[in-house]
Amino acid sequence: ADAAAQLIRDLPNLYGNYCGSRPGELLHLVETAGAEKIIFGSDFGAAGWRLLPERIDNVTEAGLNAADLDLVLYANAARRLHLVDRPLPSCPADQSSTREGGAALAR
């Protein structure tokens, strides 16, 4: 993991993906590569989604400060996906409820 963390740190176009069971590994990645280079993500199959709450708990329990936690769980992915410049379209269900006079969900 140390060589990977150093590569993530040193290569501008390389980012690390974390969804592990050891919070200490995330802390090491952030300390070595920087929180702005680590993104929470998974490759769970259809049945693996049940592990997601545990994996998110591992991230929140890793000892990161609030700013680094925000980067890892949201801001880095949002930046890489250009969600500020190109927000995802609203869900069709949200649009239909608004057209029918219903209130759309708050975002």
3D structure, described in words:
This protein has 107 residues and is mainly alpha-helical. Helix content is 49%, strand content 6%. It has 5 helices and 2 strands; from the N terminus they run αβαβααα. It has helices at 2-10, 23-33, 52-60, 66-80, 92-99; strands spanning 16-18, 38-40. It has a two-stranded parallel sheet with strand order 1-2. Strand 1, helix 2 and strand 2 (38-40) form a beta-alpha-beta unit. Residues 96-107 have low confidence and may be disordered.
Helix coverage percent of residues?
40-55%
Number of strands: 2
This entry's quaternary arrangement is: single chain
| Whole-number mean pLDDT | 83
The fraction of residues assigned to DSSP E strands is 5-15%
Per DSSP, the total helix count is 5
Distance between the termini: 37 Å
Order of helices and strands: HEHEHHH
Mind telling me the C-alpha Rg? 17 Å
Q: What summary fits the major beta sheet? A: 2 strands, parallel
In short:
It is built from five helices and two strands.
Give the helix/strand layout.
Layout: H1 2-10, E1 16-18, H2 23-33, E2 38-40, H3 52-60, H4 66-80, H5 92-99
Parallel strand pairs: 1-2
Features:
107 residues; mainly alpha; disordered C terminus
